[in-house]
Amino acid sequence: MTRAALRSLAVLTLIALAACADSAPTGTSQPTTTTGDTPVSSTTTATTAPPGTTTIRPPEPEGAIVGVQPADGNRVVSGSGRVPAVSPIDVPLPGIPAWVVGVTDGEAAGWVVALENGETVTVAWRSGQAVVETTPLRLAPLQPPRAIATSQGPLPVAPVHPTGSPTTEGLTVGEDSWHVTGDTRLWANLDGADSLVTEGVLTDTRLVASQTGLLALLTDPTDRYPHGVLGDIVEAGGFAVVDRDTATRFTLPEPTVIEGLSPMWVDADGDGVEEILVTLADREGGARLALFDAGGTLISEGPSFDQGFRWRHQIGAAPLGPNGEYEIVSVATPHLGGVVEFSRLGEGTLELVASVPGLTSHVLGSRVIDLALIADADGDGLLEVVAPTQDLTEIGAARRTADGAEIAWVVPMGGRLCTNLFAVDVAGSLWMAGGRDDGVLRIWPGR
């Protein structure tokens, strides 16, 4: 059998494994309340999942399915790169790319690229060269892809479920999976059986998993804050925390919304317990970062803009401070002239400790919220925030310093970035790639 035939068979097998039938929704609701600086109302719903452990199995280091963002939503990548020093490799593609996902076979990075029209291609690294091959898997236009490393190279993986919303990924962790449908429902597939988890979720929310087995996602669609920077004017009026047995939803008081697509699990206070990071917004104050615990209690908020319709894009959290302090990264007003911000958890507040202009993280109206990442992309042992410049023609790095922050370096994109940036740790070596609007994948290889 030819290599192309083997690849086609592997893709079709993955598609077949993804198919399963819906089950009838069941469950009961019980209202509870949660107190905090910003009260939220909560509803806990039992799922139809069979009994079992509430701890989600972590992905295996080899053969794990990879999506466009880390499972916890925190865009931090391990490994050491050499982006400013290495000569990038430009790989022509058979169309305009929309998304890039990378995987590793332990020796090199391979890439799955979803084109604007939904076609998927793979870019494998063989004998020092990039080899492009088309695959039989076709996604909905602009649908985020998933990828897996196989003995035949990188392969795209079919969506989590054939009824899943095309504006989000779904999530697979171990043998369990969750997906959102276009009718605002969250479903789980646990131990091979489908179960309705909860209703009233955003159809473009990202699903994120904590280290202890909890899922978080955005709920309660509302148009009460019609900023419309993320693809539509619908934002979240709350969020949900889900385990294998129950889903607890927390509803924010009006006029506040969560302006974003993905919550994020971070351990901001270093106590070993992760919190949920979101971006709150309203017409009076615009957007500000906020931390909630898994029980729905507001822990802290950051500064707002004191005016509506100004966005703050959360990127991730890591030991970025000059002495290794844990800091949260956001980009303020990415559409008006981006400013990279570094914040720390203080006494009930998220304190802005440093900022530097010059990089952006989002294109107005796009659902691609993955233009920036956190990594040691230059190999100096320090983490940087890697993101494009405002015109998307260069990639730069914002780094903390003893007295603030600086743009440490900038490299050319060779054209205009039109996809997410994706980095892969290959045995400690960081590879990074992004797609251009001239139909080229630019790769910065590792050592």
Write a structural description.
The protein has 447 residues and is mostly beta strands. 4% of the residues lie in helices and 48% in strands. It contains 2 helices and 34 strands. The protein has helices at residues 3-18, 334-337; strands at residues 29-34, 40-46, 76-80, 89-92, 97-104, 109-115, 119-126, 129-138, 146-150, 153-157, 171-173, 176-180, 185-190, 193-199, 208-209, 215-222, 235-242, 246-251, 257-258, 264-266, 275-282, 286-292, 298-301, 312-319, 326-332, 339-345, 350-357, 373-376, 384-388, 394-401, 404-412, 417-426, 429-436, 440-444. The strands form 8 sheets. It has a 6-stranded antiparallel sheet with strand order 1-2-18-17-16-15, with no helix packed on it. Mean pLDDT is 88; it is low at 1-39 and 47-62.
What's a concise summary of this model?
This protein is mainly β. Helix content is 4%, strand content 48%. The chain has helices at residues 3-18, 334-337, and strands at 29-34, 40-46, 76-80, 89-92, 97-104, 109-115, 119-126, 129-138, 146-150, 153-157, 171-173, 176-180, 185-190, 193-199, 208-209, 215-222, 235-242, 246-251, 257-258, 264-266, 275-282, 286-292, 298-301, 312-319, 326-332, 339-345, 350-357, 373-376, 384-388, 394-401, 404-412, 417-426, 429-436, 440-444.
